[in-house]
Write a structure and sequence with these properties.
The structure holds 2 protein chains of 2 kinds. Helix content of chain A is about 10%, strand content about 40%. By secondary structure, chain A is mainly β. Chain A has a single domain (about 5-70), classed as Beta-grasp domain (Ubiquitin-like (UB roll)). In chain A, strand 1 and strand 2 (about 15-20) form a beta hairpin. Chain A is globular and about 45 Å long. Chain B is α/β, with parallel strands linked by helices. Chain B has one domain (about 15-240): TIM Barrel. In chain B, about 35% of the residues lie in helices and about 15% in strands. In chain B, the strands form 3 sheets. Chain B has a 5-stranded parallel sheet with strand order 5-4-3-10-9. Classes of the chains: A mainly beta, B alpha/beta. The interface of A and B includes residues 12, 37, 41, 45 and 67 of A. Strand 5 of chain A pairs antiparallel with strand 4 (about 45-50) of chain B, so a sheet runs across the interface.
Chain lengths: ~70, ~260
């Protein structure tokens, strides 16, 4: 069991990112202010469907991508 | 006046009435993006997938608020991918972004100087995506042999470049585009290089099923006006193709009869 204040290091969109241990991908999305937004999440090169975000715990070293739609041709 | 008819423009089993597909890049703001796209009459609209800007105002408007998936058929693209793996990851992210929507524009680029398609990586990516259930509209070179391979693999549209992406140089090799059109059973669209309305009309006169463009509208002095011009050019070019142009002649051929001239 991790202590409440223990934090883990992730890589988020290519940058180092510290997060409280024991949280899920859904918690991360909320923490980023992106809850309810049209985004997609990939962890360690695997898509995490929206329906699975809350059931996906984050682990130290996870490589996370959070993407959205932008203008392009 | 007679109502002229056309066969439907069908992509991956869906019928569309507009043969103009447009991108969403390079506009001044989302208001201009939305207005230009509405003016163009396009029904299929392409966009890019990028990392969210962390720390940015999460309430900032989103492209998909302007280009609604309810109103348009969205076509996520893999622009910026230089290998098959990145392109496949991007398509899977896009499918998640759009709740399972399978239609994608695959483009795998060779280098950032030319943005020329890397056909080796494109073929690899297409194979993986098709096996994974995607409907793949593929940006490629104007090489008819590569186009034939991509069609045989199962791509739902072949999209040769007219000239380099964003160059506005028009269709540099109309003969190759025609060869691709003549051999293909799936829709062929010129995707890249269109600079102005006559380029779009030319693509359609060559028999292309559609045209995909972005910069020609977004970088025009008046994007709304150019969006309208492109809409009309694609329609005019299509009608000219269906009508069948008159034969070219070496010499003049008067339109008025010789008989009955007052000096006869």
């Amino acid at each position: 069991m991790s202590t409440p204040n223990e934090s883990i290091q992730l890589t988020l969109n290519g940058e180092p990112y510290a997060m409280t241990a024991g949280l899920t991908a859904a918690d991360l999305v909320e923490q980023l202010g992106l809850g309810g937004r049209r985004i997609a999440v990939e962890i360690n090169e695997q898509i995490v469907p929206k329906s699975q975000l809350a059931a996906t715990p984050l682990a130290a070293g996870d490589q996370i991508e959070v993407v959205h739609a932008i203008g392009g041709g | 006046m007679t109502q002229l008819t056309d066969t439907p423009f069908t992509i991956a089993g869906r019928d569309f009435s507009s043969r103009l597909l447009v991108g969403t890049g390079k506009y001044k703001d989302f208001t201009e993006t939305g207005a230009a796209i509405a003016q163009s009459g396009a029904e299929i609209v392409t966009f890019a997938v990028r990392r969210t800007n962390l720390g940015q105002d999460a309430d900032a408007p989103n492209l998909l608020d302007v280009i609604s998936p309810k109103q348009y058929t969205l076509l996520p693209n893999t622009a910026g991918c230089y290998n098959a793996k990145d392109a496949v990851r991007t398509c899977r992210l896009a499918r998640e972004l759009l709740d399972g929507h399978n239609l994608v524009k695959l483009e795998v680029l060779g280098d950032d100087h030319t943005l020329y398609p890397n056909v080796v990586e494109t073929l690899k990516a297409a194979e993986t995506l098709l096996a994974d259930g995607f409907d793949v509209m593929v940006y490629t070179s104007d090489d008819p042999i590569v186009a034939r391979e991509l069609e045989a693999m199962g791509c739902c549209a072949i999209m040769p470049l007219g000239s380099l992406i964003g160059s506005g140089h028009g269709i540099q090799n109309p003969h190759n585009v025609r060869l691709i059109v003549e051999q293909s059973s799936v829709p062929v669209l010129v995707d890249a290089g269109i600079g102005t309305a006559s380029d779009a009309a030319m693509a359609m006169e060559l028999g292309c099923d559609g045209v995909l463009l972005n910069s020609a509208i977004a970088h025009a002095r008046d994007p709304l006006r150019m969006a309208n011009a492109m809409k009309l050019a694609v329609e005019a070019g299509r009608d000219a193709f269906l009508a069948g142009r008159m034969p070219r002649r070496q010499n003049a051929d008067p339109s008025s009869p010789f008989a009955g001239r007052i000096n006869g």
